[in-house]
Amino acid sequence: MRKILAAITALSLVAASQLAWGAKVMPELKKANTDICLKMGASARGAPKAPEKMPAFCGCVSDAYWDSVPQSEYNLLLQTGKSPSLEANLEKRLDVAKAACLKKAG
Question: Which keywords does the record carry (predicted)?
C-alpha cells in the first residue's frame, strides 16, 4: 500500500507542476487511484469478486478516500511530496471507503 501511495505522490507532484492549483489536481489523483485499483482487480483486499463491479467500486473507493482527506493534508502532500498524517491514516481511510463502497456495489 505504501508503494501505491508513493506512486500517487509522484503523480500528484507531476500533476501539480503541470497544472495550476485548483480543480484539475484532485481529479488526477482520483483517476490514478481508480486506475491502480482496476489493475489490481479482484485480488485487491476488500474488492468485490465480480469483475463487472470493479469499475464502479474502484471509482467509489477513490472518491470516498480523497473526500475524507482534510484539505490541509492534501495541501501538505502537494507542497512537500509527503504528509505524515495522510500516511498514518491511509489504511483506516481506505478501509472505511471500501466498506461503504462494497455496500453500494451489493
Answer: Signal
